[in-house]
Design brief:
The chain is an alpha/beta fold. The chain is built from 7 helices and 26 strands.
Amino acid sequence: MKVIVPLAGKGTRLLPLTKRVPKPLVRVAGRPVMDYVMDTVKGFSIDELIVITGHLKDVVERYIVEHYDVPARFVEQKTLDGTAGAINLARPFVDGPVLIIFVDTLFDADLSLIRTSDADGILWAKEVEDYQRFGVIVTDRRGYMTTIVEKPSEPVSKLANIGLYYVKDWKTLFDGIAHVLGQAPGKGGEYYLTDAFQYMVDRGRRLVTAAVGGWYDCGKVETLLETNRHLLEQGRARLPVGPCPRCAIVPPVYIEAGVTIHDATVGPNVSLEAGSYVTESVIANSVLGRNVRVVGSTVRDSLIGDDQVVEGKTIARSVLDAGELAPAR
């Protein structure tokens, strides 16, 4: 099986951090988002990882080569023309079933269905209440897709499409993508992979939906911090090692070795990485990178990049990186 991973997006909702850090490499609970995603495919024989790159492609390529023991091919998406355009770039290198993973979300999914399902494809989905925000999958009584509806105003379905797909009938998938690319683009001048799935269904292919136990967005500050909290609650928590004079540590937290804290309150839901220094400050519900210095300040509901200095300030619902502060989007 080959795995296609589109990584070309700029991650604009995490600016200014994503000027320097590709969105899949933004760290949550001490690890890049992509690491958690790659954990889910361990145990499968992967012939090749086909990575669709774009923004900060050199950084992405170097990280994948150095950290993942899997053959990888990199293809640049020079024109950001949507998800169908991204997957189409893998077409020359696909000669069998494919797994497609969009890595700006984490998920608890049973990928063993790949080995047992007789369907032409599997679309993993999560039932949500705020269905108006998502593309939702409408199914028949057996759970096979009939249509995908983008951001419906009526509750035609609450099964949100999460961006994880296995396609056994890869030939019809790419026929569908070619058909989509031959039509007028959709909103924002983009072509959508979901339209290729609709093409498959309209031609009699069977795409079954599969539920996920959890789905955690890392694409914007608010949801990334929620994902950080979830990971801490599910086993990633780590209390500080060594002395912490006049500290109040409010679990759950992830505090790496090499962090210095005194006269401060840290937590809940805080990740703080090696080399950082915190004194006379309060930090809550935030993710702070490596070598961050926080003195006489309050940091809440925020994302702070590596090597930043926060002195005598209150930062709330914001992103700070390379000395640039921006409100969360």
